[in-house]
Amino acid sequence: MFVEMGLRWLWRHRVSALLLVLALALLLSLLATRSLHTNRTYDLRPTADRRNQRRVAEKHTSPLTPNTHHQPKHTPTARAERRRAHPPVVFLKTHRTGSSTVQNILFRLGERESATFAFPSRTFQFNYPDRFRATFVDELPEGSSQFDLLCSHMRLDLREVRKVMPQNAVFITLLRDPIKTFESVFGYYTSTVPAFFTARRAATNEGKSALSVFLDSPEIFWDPKEPGNGLAKNPMSFDMGLNNQKWNGSWPEDLAQLEEAFHLVMIAEHFDESLVLLGALLGLKHEDLAYLRLNVRAGNSVTELDENMQAKVRSWNVLDTLLYDFFVQVFWEKAAQFGMERLKAEVEQLKAFTEDVRRKCVSRTEVPPKELEDLLRPWQTETATIVGYEVQGNLSLQDQGFCIRMMLPELQYHSHLYFKQYGRDMRAAPAD
């Protein structure tokens, strides 16, 4: 008992130099902008032992084609052999971080490998913003012995996710600069998040942008008891299952558990580097990792923030800033383990391959939604215009299938894979 107490005391009082520097730097930055309304210090301690990256080999078939590609049969033997070469994956799809692009990579990989997806039992999300529960997942399809991929929106609950996914599942997610994330979240969800919608109504009488009005006095608009306000403060922390309302004593331990659980936390500002590390983790090739940026807003839907507004965003989302800064440091530690020269070389190779694919596949970028056919038109919100891509003409069936899948919006691809797996359309959400 005394040994256990001693070890616990040592863990709690062993200050990580890395996180101490991050916390102090953040505090000084916030004080300098006079935006920080608290003198609380943040003491985050990562776990001492970091899980080593697991690298697995995987063989690949030729690129997919619309209807002529021969899919592997769903036999238990074939799936068992494939799982030994390619581990199951849990991708925590965070909001407005570039996660739709990563999801598309996993959708394509899973479809080609005839993976079994853990889909929400209703619509496209796992009963968001509720914490994930195993009961939110649709049934295991006939002929499958386990789920291989989980990559739909959820609010994380590690214990519940582990009830669904195999023990050897690889956990990955994506974080983005908190200022850019919050601006994007606000612009995309202005009409659906209650705190944002209220600020938008107030802005009509003040002659200012809704975001500016909200940031002037966010506490006026934000009701923490309103379930729909989860994304209105520290949205990445909320998605990660952390307490997003304020710092509390459980944060260091919760953060340590996330660091231990996630094999890779990708960083949007270093997206290509992140994909190279992902490829090494899962045994993927450049053709698997080539991408088009999806769910991107038109330029006129993006709000440019001056230094004052940036400071207000950072102050309101201080926990997201700590979360992001922490995992940026962890990311570069993993990059160093991989080898910086090797990483740089592979990033250049990935960029070159991706550019070749884009030239082959895309005839027009940033295409307004009205000019896109239904199959390639992203879902639109009331306050943001989401642009898409126009596919090149004169492609072979095989290339056309590959290219269309790369630019296929989330909802269309999700619906396609769900029908392919279950032979029926998704269930609608229950009426309120």
UniProtKB/TrEMBL annotation:
Its main location: Golgi. Residues 43-85 are annotated as: Disordered. Residues 43-61 have a biased composition (Basic and acidic residues). Keywords: Glycoprotein, Golgi apparatus, Membrane, Signal-anchor, Transferase, Transmembrane, Transmembrane helix. Signal peptide: none annotated. The keyword Nucleus does not apply. GO terms for biological process: glycolipid biosynthetic process. It comes from the Eukaryota. One of its GO terms (molecular function) is galactosylceramide sulfotransferase activity. It is found in: Golgi apparatus membrane. InterPro entries: Gal-3-0_sulfotransfrase, P-loop_NTPase. GO terms for cellular component: Golgi membrane. It is a single-pass type II membrane protein. Belongs to the galactose-3-O-sulfotransferase family. This is Galactose-3-O-sulfotransferase 2-like. The lineage of its organism: Eukaryota, Metazoa, Chordata, Craniata, Vertebrata.
